[in-house]
Amino acid sequence: MVKLAENKHHSENKPTCSMPLPKKVYISLIQHLGKICVPEVKVGDKVSCGQRIASLPSGLYSPIHSSISGTVSAIQDCPHPVIGRAKAVVIQGDGREDGDFSKSIRSQPFSLTAQELRDIVLEAGIVGMGGASFPTHIKLNPPKPVNTLIINGAECEPYLTADSRLMVEKTTEIVKGIRLIVSCLGIKDVYIGIEDNKPEAIRAFSGFDDIKVKVLKSDYPQGGEKQLIRNILGKELPRGKYPFDIGALVQNVSTMFAIYEAVYKGKPLIERIVTVTGSCIKEPVNLLVRIGTPIKDLIEFCGLNEEPAKIIIGGPMMGIAQYTDEVPLIKSSNGLLLMNKVEAEVLEEKPCIRCAACIRGCPVGLMPCQINLASERSLWALTKEYGASDCIECGICNYVCPANRRLLQTIKRAKLEGVR
Amino acid sequence: MINNLIVSGSPHIHKQESVSRIMWTVVLSTIPAGIAGVIIFGLDALWVILVAVIAAVLTEAVFEIWSKKKVTVMDGSAVITGILLAYNLPPNVPLWLPIIGAVFSIAVGKQVFGGLGQNIFNPALVGRVFLMASWPKYMTTFVKPLSYDAITSATPLAALKEGKILEHISYLDLFLGKRGGCIGEVCILALLIGAAILLYKGYISWHIPMTYILTTAVFTYIFGAKQLFHGDWLFHILSGGLILGAFFMATDYVATPLTINGQIVFGIGCGLLTAIIRIWGGYPEGVSYAILIMNAATPFIDRYTKNRIYGTS
Asked: Among B5, B74, B163, B214, which is most exposed with the fewest C-beta within 10 angstroms?
């Protein structure tokens, strides 16, 4: 765990504002961990806002909805923020406002069974919004009974304030979402983990008897699943086990809000809050943006100070650098970070001096410098012995390395070889 | 459309720490001991330091040019090797001695293994023991402190070894450096100032120096005199090269263990070896050999002192 320069002050006190409806959206057919969806619309079709446009009959997937009202103008290969390129449904907007979701509102949310809740979550296309995008309806169907719900409100990545704003602005909605899961899954204990740099959010959640607020030190990566479990429950997730193995379920605050909207408003997941920030952005903001909006629209809306040299979707530690500003947002895109030339400079790699800064920083107790040396020599048995597969890819090792070694990249390589 | 975007793997921010900043800070931390050495032994000491540093830097540059590698002498690591070698030499040695020592340190102690980060022994100590084996007479002739001429004097440890009675040396004299010895080892006060800089910056941790010094103290207290538990442990801490070695050479990153547990094992090992050599060995002083032997044991220590991985027992 390390203390990072937070840089959240640019946007943390700015209320979320809605971005004007985009003219055109590029809705990727893969917005989740799992299989790519099959489109249910064809070019020329009229679609309404919130209409399901892609799905699969079964498997690890989450359906995808149109985020605006308009006409399908193409189904084509488009840039994708995580996997580079993927097929997307391109919708030319007609400028009309939201569709009517009232017919799918549930009148008595607390009489829902677990299966009914899962069906609603599936139909609404909800995925884990903290970053991994795992389909939420599957996570709500744990193979073992769970009795503890951990809500992740840590938001430990520097710069990002989307979750932080949501917790302050939509507290009761998030709590309603939490209570749905509690009643449907028979949860006994609910914890919400919030870093101590968000006093407003801590205060907001302190008034609820059924939710225990756990104030966490603002160290990175406090919001990692393994770190949350250790720092909230006081025990570690045994190697190779999932949270349900120890009776726990971990969910992000944004996902709770999405569940609330699906059940109480009948609204599928078609928009999310994105923190648009970085030294190149004139006016850093928290924007409520439709899924599929290309990032150049966001950049245009916020204005530039200077030409960005690097555009990152996500935070500076785990986010992904983009090769074009035409890439559209997906359900897990929680931040848009624009760095200038100085900040984006790629530092020269030097020999390891065994200073062990990476070892002291590693939040899961690995020896990154040793895995790095083994990986560079393709000694995959050795990387396995050093526990490369336990890496959570938080990036601390690279961050602290005085020799600018590409520790994380070589460890990722070793992880892939370990699976092979 | 925005063009020429830089695409690289995460993370996208850096702590802004660098190898050269660490190395130059170490250089800075050695300066108090150097100043003390020059005050105590005169300008002879300064020439030895300068010659050793220049020879070390030139050797590194020549080696890197010859092997068609990037010249990295500005990273400060060769400067440290030169300084530490000089600090381990008597002040009145002929100036060709530090030159040969520095060339040997960098060439054989560092570059033949592949340069920075690859050496298995502390380069300065490699140079020192080479000189010790080759020219023992020069290496064991010391001058009297604050006399500024060639009046020879035994080091306190050598006097102890030969069974001589130590005259006029109080603990305070030892602490301030009023004794015969190597240039950089005598003034404990100056060494501690430098060590404080490194500890404050977090460039070294207390684990190796403390375990090293404590082990030496305990062992010399128990076995350091004819009767058990009568050894003069404070004398052993303050004399010889223990403080210099413990803070500046046993903490060298490259040739010491990676994890805290490993560093504790390393420190205890150094302490035991130093005390054994001082009490029963053929030499009055054992710091150099103790650290070099433990350097050799480092890969082995690393292997058995890995950190516990999250979620495992």
From this structure: B163
